[in-house]
Write a structure and sequence with these properties.
- The complex is a heterodimer of chains A (187) and B (937).
- Chain A is mostly helical.
- Chain A contains ten helices and no strands.
- The longest helix of chain A has 15 residues.
- The mean pLDDT of chain A is 83.
- With 937 residues, chain B is mainly α.
- In chain B, 70% of the residues lie in helices and 0% in strands.
- Classes of the chains: A mainly alpha (187), B mainly alpha (937).
- At the A-B interface, helix 1, helix 2, helix 5, helix 6 and helix 7 of A face helix 10, helix 11, helix 12, helix 16 and helix 17 of B.
- Chain A: This is Calcium and integrin binding family member 3.
- Chain A: One of its GO terms (molecular function) is magnesium ion binding.
- Chain A: Pfam families: EF-hand_7.
- Chain A: Keywords: Calcium, Magnesium, Metal-binding, Repeat.
């Protein structure tokens, strides 16, 4: 396994393997994916931990994300500055959570963050409306949207505070049969 | 004196810095900065500054740059605080250490505590200083926790604990003059615990929803801590052992990681699947994942068969032409190399290592004394055993991961909202389809919700459903009869030689055609039934399954007929063969007239052979498999590729839009393909015992079909219009596979256990039954007592109780699981009830308002109270109860009145009277006025 790569030190790679669900090879592959987004910005040497961030425009144009209605939210949630500008660490983080190996709870946590558009740690009606409009490209009428949002609240809001807390969300999502298979991006 | 403590702390931190710079160069700059800062400030001020840093760490989303410094600060602070708190924390709850560790900085705390082991006896003044610091820090911590409030669950608790700790430390310095040992028993245990904690953290750090940067830092700290103190643990005798254990664990972890790296590198087609996935979503990809899984399993079966049966026979067995069973008979030799004959797996193919008949019945072969017959039987059984185990394990794993125990309908809309988008999609067209299908499904659910099924003309629908089922049963029976008929006919054909190509391959063609024609036919018939698409899909799958199964079993029964006739035939041939042999020798001695000389052995090509039914069965299965491959590939080529080409290029000169109109492009038929794969595998399982080469053919088939179908689906198919979910069906397919496995196990085991093997071909020739080879091995190769042991074990007196026991165990486990299920249901019901209650109590504001308003209209009129002008913004939440009261229990009403009167005791309650009168509130009961009192929530 001693093929030459001078991008990371061995310790760095080990640390990344400890912190993500990826193997060495996948980490390197992700690095190259990251670098391909902006070869002029990203250096080929990460042993010094350069402070590089790629703007959201580049991240959002990745084929994995470009058709996702929530791409902006994903980038925002996983980026440190909350604006969607991602460093390599954020990038690895994102794909680690979205990988096949990540446990349900972790995925649920980040899914919650993604659907929580206004970052208030609750999914409220306006978040639901936004989600729905993104999912259907605003093709439902206003009444329909309202009704669906009410139904969702009705179903999932366990403590009846009119918004979904993380617990409500987890309670609902861990029972969903499709969550794991769809909240997943293969790299 | 306080200064001293701080300086010490700084020393500690510097020490650590040095260490860290060994392991990591990246943050040197930052660290240098920080060290400066640490050095610059002194004593309490320093602690304070660091405390600030610490806070920054906690909400690092805002001030990322501060974070490392803050962490560092926390580290420095710890030892100082530790010294204050240490005195009493032997009897303090030790588990409060644990959460603290996670917060970073803890790595050095111990060190601080221990490093001081020698110059321990501090003056009270110093302790006081520390106590002050501790107190200050407590304040800081408070801020800290405040900043964190929203940060998520669990952390507040942690903070609280810490605060408690701090308090105790600041309190304790007055009376804490007890001994402080360097390494007592409890200390050790605690250290051990801490190390374990760290290790757990290292193992689980990827599961924490933290930022990568924080994770990296924490990981590094934890690792350093573990490295540092792991060696210190264990004393005397245990120490070496402990160190050894630690080393081995490390090696093991490293090995595991390397192995994992290797394993993931070995998984093929990840890219291809991803490509398909992003074009078609997870449902189509699930087929390819299934295919890959199948390929892996077949690869193992292939390894077993070829490694233990085929290769030994080829390398060590007798060569071709040495004995009759390995030689093409004289009569067939002229045509044995013809292409047509070979394609029918006759001629040289039939007498090759691919089929059962080729193997010799020598007990051991070659220098290694390899017991081929035994190996043959064991591999046959092992194939089933391995497949069974693998399928069941995968099913269990799927069930575990799938986890979706939610009832249908409980979260319909929520799931639709949050899980319907397929994050895998990376293709604009698919995304469009997905948007459309999501919109449709939402609309459907809304319609469903609004009007629960309008059932018009239920009689017609029932009639149509019965009719459809009748038609389908007819076609199932028809196809079964057709196959039986064809097999019978092929037996007649077998005796003739002037056969056309069609007549030779009739059976396979008919079976493949049935598989091709019937599913669409069923689909057309199913239109009559007018089921919901999801239910319709299940019916469709079940029917196709029944069709395939029926065909397969008809085929098998017909085959058994053939085998039985062959077995009868065999007896006479055996006699003829022996007679011919005798005749040959007699002739030889008569002709040569020399009774002493041993005659040259008869040419193996001339010996009269039995029909060797095993090889015949094997050939049938191989032919079936091959024709299945051909039909599948041709279907793809014609049905998808040719269609796509025509649609694409004729579209320029056609009267209507071919792409959007009638033929359009094909969709990938997931269920059909999966079922095809499952049944193919069933044939492999059945045939592999009689044709070891079949597994090899299947591996090739799967390999090629992976590439071919990937190409086909990418080139010619369009994404589904209604993208249906595959995740649930995953285990459904596995269940089908298990069923097929079981069904294909039956005939093979039956033949092994009860049919006599052919007398002149195959590894078991000359035995009464195939499994006699095991008896033989036990008798001849194992020591005698093993034989008796086995005979005891095989005694019905032992087997029957064992079976009984197993049945009992199954029954017990079954009832236990049922009980769990029941209690689960009970809990669920309880939760639902609690929820509803809560809802009713709290939620009456809006939802039931309309009803309440109406009732309110009625209520006051009855009470005949003076028309007091009521409040317009009636607080609705107590009103919910009156509605209930009206509904039923009068007793409750009394209670309510009490409530109301209580509420009215509020002097402000009368205030709303001055408001403008509303139409509905006229004539409130006396209590009713009070009811307006509490401001609306």
């Amino acid at each position: 396994m001693g093929n030459k790569q001078s991008i990371f030190t061995a310790q760095q790679l080990d640390a990344y393997q400890d912190c993500t669900y990826f193997t060495r090879k996948e980490i390197l592959r992700l690095f190259y994916r990251y670098r391909d987004l902006a070869p002029q910005l990203v250096p080929l040497d990460y042993t010094k931990q350069p402070d590089v961030k790629l703007p959201y425009e580049l991240i959002g144009s990745m084929p994995e994300l470009k058709d996702n209605p929530f791409r902006q939210r994903i980038a925002e949630v996983f980026s440190e500055d909350g604006e969607g500008n991602m460093s390599l660490d954020d990038f690895l983080d994102m794909f680690s959570v979205l990988s096949e190996m990540a446990p349900r709870d972790l995925k649920a946590y980040y899914a919650f963050k993604i659907y929580d558009f206004n970052n208030d740690d609750f999914i409220c009606k306006s978040d639901l409306e936004k989600t729905l409009n993104k999912l259907t490209r605003s093709e439902l009428t206003e009444d329909e949207v309202k009704m669906v949002c009410e139904k969702v609240m009705d179903e999932a809001d366990l403590d009846n505070d009119g918004r979904l807390s993380l617990e409500d969300f987890q309670h609902m999502i861990v029972r969903a049969p499709d969550f794991l298979s769809t909240f997943h991006i293969r790299i | 004196m306080p200064r001293k403590g701080a300086v010490q702390a700084d020393d500690v931190s510097v020490d650590i810095d040095d260490e860290q710079s060994d392991s990591d160069d990246g943050t040197t700059k930052r660290r240098a900065n920080r060290r400066q800062a640490g050095g610059g400030r002194g004593g309490g001020g320093g602690a304070k500054g660091r405390g600030r840093g610490k806070k920054a760490e906690s909400d690092e989303e805002e001030e990322e740059d501060e974070a490392p410094k803050g962490r560092r600060g926390a580290q420095n602070k710890r030892p100082a605080k530790k010294r204050g708190g240490k005195k009493d924390d032997d009897d303090d709850d030790s588990e409060e250490e644990a959460p603290k560790n996670k917060r970073g900085g803890a790595a050095n705390k111990r060190k601080g505590g221990k490093g001081r082991g020698g110059d321990d006896e501090d003056s009270p003044a110093e302790k006081g200083g520390k106590g002050r610091k501790g107190g200050k820090k407590g304040g800081k911590e408070e801020e800290d926790s405040k900043g964190k409030k929203g940060d998520g669950k669990g952390k507040d608790e942690k903070n609280k604990k810490k605060k408690k700790k701090d308090d105790s430390s600041s309190d304790s310095n007055s009376n804490s003059d007890e001994e402080e040992d360097s390494m007592s028993e409890g200390e050790m245990a605690r250290l051990m615990e801490e190390v374990e904690e760290k290790k757990k953290l290292i193992a689980n750090i990827r599961n924490k929803p933290w930022r990568m940067k924080r994770r990296l830092v924490l990981l590094r700290e934890a690792q350093q801590f573990v490295d540092k103190f792991e060696g210190a643990l264990g004393k005397g005798k245990g120490r070496k052992w402990y160190a050894y254990k630690v080393m081995m664990t490390k090696k093991w972890i490293k090995f595991q990681r390397d192995f994992e790296n290797f394993r993931t590198a070995c998984i093929p087609w990840e890219r291809k699947i991803k490509e398909v996935e992003s074009h078609f979503g997870s449902s189509v990809a699930s087929y390819f994942i299934f295919l890959r899984w199948m390929y892996g399993m077949n690869l193992v079966l292939f390894g077993l068969t070829f490694g233990l049966v085929v290769m030994p026979e080829v390398l060590m067995g007798l060569p071709y032409g040495s004995i009759p069973r390995k030689t093409v008979p004289r009569a067939e030799q002229d045509t044995a190399q013809d292409y047509a004959v070979l394609m029918d797996f006759n001629g040289y193919c039939k007498y090759s290592v691919l089929f059962y008949g080729y193997y010799n019945d020598q007990r051991t072969i070659g220098l290694l004394k390899f017991r081929l017959p035994l190996a043959y039987l064991m591999v046959g059984i092992g194939t089933f055993g391995y497949s069974l185990m693998l399928v069941i394990r995968t099913m269990a794993k799927n069930a575990d991961v799938g986890g979706g125990d939610g009832d249908e309908g409980e979260f319909t809309f929520a799931w639709k909202m949050f899980t319907s988008w397929d994050y895998l999609i990376g293709n604009a067209e698919t995304a469009d389809n997905k948007y459309a299908s999501i919109t449709t499904s939402f609309k459907e659910s809304i319609v469903d919700e609004q009007e629960n099924q309008k059932d018009e003309n239920i009689h017609l629908r029932r009639f149509l459903r019965v009719l459809a089922n009748f038609l389908i049963t007819c076609s199932l029976g028809g196809s079964g009869y057709l196959i039986y008929f064809v097999v019978k006919r092929s037996q007649d054909f077998a005796t003739r030689d002037d056969l056309s190509w069609y007549e030779k391959n009739e059976l396979e063609l008919i079976m493949s055609l049935l598989g091709l024609v019937c599913p669409p036919l069923f689909e057309t018939i199913a239109e009559l039934e007018d089921y919901h698409p999801r239910i319709a899909l299940k019916w469709q799958l079940g029917r196709i399954f029944a069709l395939f199964l029926g065909n397969l079993y008809t085929f098998l029964f017909a085959l058994f007929d053939e085998v039985n006739t062959k077995l009868e035939e065999e007896q006479s041939i055996k006699n003829a063969s022996i007679w011919a042999m005798k005749e040959y020798y007699a002739n030889f001695s008569r002709l040569v007239n020399d009774s002493e000389s041993t005659p040259p052995p008869m040419n193996p090509a001339d010996v009269i052979r039995g029909p060797c039914w095993e090889t015949a069965v094997g050939i049938e299965f191989v032919k079936l498999t091959v024709s299945d491959i051909q039909v599948t590939y041709l279907t793809i080529l014609i049905g998808d590729f040719a269609r796509a080409v025509i649609v694409r290029f004729l579209n320029y000169c056609w009267c209507w839009d071919l792409e959007a109109g009638f033929p359009s492009y094909g969709e990938f038929d997931i269920s059909g393909n999966v079922l095809g794969l499952v049944f193919n595998q069933g044939m492999i399982w059945m045939g592999a015992f009689y044709a070891p080469g079949l597994v090899g053919i299947n591996v090739l088939r799967l390999l090629s079909s992976m590439y071919y179908q990937c190409w086909a689906v990418m080139a010619t198919n369009v994404p589904h219009e209604r993208v249906f979910k595959a995740s649930k069906s995953n285990n459904f397919y596995m269940g089908l596979l298990l069923l097929v496995l079981f069904l294909s196990l039956l005939p093979v085991v039956y033949t092994i256990m009860s049919l006599p093997p052919s007398f002149d071909c195959g590894p078991f020739s000359g035995k009464e039954k195939m499994f006699d080879v095991i008896m033989e091995t036990i008798d001849l190769d194992l020591p005698a007592f093993m034989g008796t042991l086995f005979s005891y074990a095989a005694n019905p007196g032992l087997i029957i109780p064992a079976v009984l026991l197993m049945v009992l165990a199954i029954y017990y486990l079954n009832s236990v699981s049922e009980a769990y299920q029941n209690s689960n249901m009970e809990l669920k019901k309880k939760m639902q009830m609690a929820r509803d209650e809560e809802k009713n109590r709290r939620n009456n504001t809006d939802s039931t308002n309309q009803v309440m308003k109406d009732l309110e209209d009625l209520l006051p009129n009855r009470s005949l109270a003076p028309p007091a002008p009521p409040e317009p913004e009636k607080p609705p939440e107590p009103e919910g109860k009156p509605t209930k009261t009206r509904g039923g229990a009068a007793g409750k009403g009394v209670d309510l009145q009490k409530d109301v009167s209580l509420a009215s005791s509020n002097p402000n309650a009368r205030e709303p009277v001055t408001r403008a009168p509303g139409a509905r509130g006229r004539g409130q009961p006396p209590g009713g006025r009070g009811r307006g009192g509490p401001p609306p929530r």
